[in-house]
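step: validate -> pass
step: tokenize input -> pass
step: predict -> running
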Amino acid sequence: MSFYPLLNQMAKNMNSETVLRAQDIYKSYHKDRIEVPVLRGVDFEVTAGLVTALVGRSGSGKSTLMHLLATLDQPDRGEIHFQGERIDDAPRSRRDRYRNHDIGIIFQFYHLLPELSAIENVLAPTMIGKSAWNFFRHRKEAKRRAEAMLDRVGLLHRAAHKPAEMSGGEMQRAAIARALMTDPTLLLADEPTGNLDTETGLEILKLLTELNQDDGLTILMITHDNSIAESADRCHRMQDGQLQQGMPELLIA
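step: predict -> pass
step: emit ->
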């Protein structure tokens, strides 16, 4: 690593503010009468300004943890705090606002609405987060921001295209633009390159790195790919529903 990137890395590592923390998280699912434990006492945190990777094999519990961090599901036991506020047991309206404004989420399979164009998909969080009248009043401003987000991810020229008319990489770029629409504090990325070929996956990874380095966006990235995890500032490994002890958290390479 050359001198200036090393200084940048050191400056990032000095930022110790915890933006998201999970404490003693347990989660099980039931299949018929059988209880299947997925998470078993997980303590985990995400530091502001860094890219944090959570790596592990399929079935290790990493995606379940991300769903809990995003309040898409609730833990059986334990607590989740966002910027010091407990969020997992907050009223539904607060959890909805948390997902719609405080965080952005991207998934392996994009989850774009097939009947909407790229720009309409990007506008969706704003449509959901505002009343119909409020959105109508600010629709021009919202459209300008959606166009800016598409331009930021290099997809403005595909704004009018529907998902079926786009490649996998383009759909993931649209999903990233949608996640950025509300200017989130934290981006949760669940296997963001897992459904893409190697070259396209590297392009998406480069984009996420730029969002962190240029825009200061805090990112938690879930992946099974060690090579992707090695690009992060911090890396945690999950196995059998627990974070492995003794794994190096800090990567400087």
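step: describe -> The two ends are 6 Å apart (CA to CA).
step: cleanup -> pass
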